[in-house]
Amino acid sequence: MKSTRSRILGRIATALALLIVLPPAGLALYWWLSFPDVQGLVKANPRTTALIEARQAEARAKDPDAEAYRVWVPLSEIAPALQHAVIVSEDASFYFHDGFDWEGIKEAALRNVEAGKLARGGSTLTQQLAKNLYLSSHKTFLRKAEEALITYALERDLTKKRILELYLNVVEWGKGVYGAEAAARHHFGKHAADLSEEEAALLAAMLPSPRTYDPLKVTRYLAVRQQQILRLMDERQGRPSLTGNKDGTRIVPRQAKENGTPPAPRPVRDKK
């Protein structure tokens, strides 16, 4: 009787252990098998992105001949004004953080709890890049976990300059328009290298809703946001928060202290 009871209890304990262990193990195996080749981005440019593919599927459902407009250029051929405008508008502490803006995450978490859903992000440029390159737009806790792992890998394997270059070449800047060069040609009829500060600020102002706004049809929101971005660019002109280290790496707190670098600026969230 005791032997039978022991066997039954042993089987129950084994089953419970498997129920606890197998799901996380299976999830870990899935992530390991499906994890993207982030290190390959050190030298190779992505041929497409998850966002572009999703948008193309939507567009071709209406027009089978729809094509994405995208022209890849190196960071050196993107006007510094656009680089700076995107940083001050989307991720003011880009050159200081390790991929995560913890204060922004805290703020977003509080707002999400209040809303009862994943309504607000607080994402850095690196997190946005991770999502655009590899993930769906669905806001779930599983997708956020994948985004965090990919963000960590991007920051580990790539320099800040390379992350910025990738971001500026794949970000959406209008319906079917992706990347700085395509945006400059489509909206202003010029190369990304030739964008003025005013044009750069307008493009940066579009980014929260790139398919909603047209920089040639300036709304009150775009005008106000453009002026705010221009003011921030002027205030931080020449500072490391806009340029980073010469080798394109992150500015760590010790380096900032030794070089007399001002602390990382707090992001100015879009108040639309």
Q: Could you explain how this protein is built, in words?
A:
This protein has a single domain (37-258), classed as Penicillin binding protein transpeptidase fold, CATH 1.10.3810.10. The chain has 272 residues and is mainly α. It is 57% helix and 1% strand. 31% of the residues are buried. Mean pLDDT is 82; it is low at 25-30. It has 12 helices and 2 strands. Helix 3 (80-90) packs parallel to helix 9, helix 3 packs across helix 10 and helix 5 packs across helix 7. The chain has a two-stranded parallel sheet. It has helices spanning 2-34, 50-62, 80-90, 102-115, 125-134, 141-157, 160-170, 180-188, 197-206, 220-235, 240-243, 253-258; strands at residues 69-70, 177-178. The protein is globular.
Give a short synopsis of this structure.
The protein has about 270 residues and is mostly helical. The chain is about 55% helix and about 0% strand.
| Portion in helices | 55-70%
Return the average pLDDT rounded to an integer. 82
Strand content: under 5%
* CATH topology (fold) name: Penicillin binding protein transpeptidase fold
Outline the low-pLDDT stretches. 25-30
Task: Say how many strands there are.
Answer: 2
Q: What is the correct CATH architecture? A: Orthogonal Bundle
CATH superfamily: Biosynthetic peptidoglycan transglycosylase-like
**Structural class determined from secondary elements:** mainly alpha
C-alpha Rg (nearest Å)? 22 Å
Oligomer: single chain
> Could you state the order of secondary-structure elements as H and E?
HHEHHHHHEHHHHH
* Largest beta sheet: strand ordering: 1-2
Choose one word for the global shape: globular
Q: Main beta sheet, described? A: 2 strands, parallel
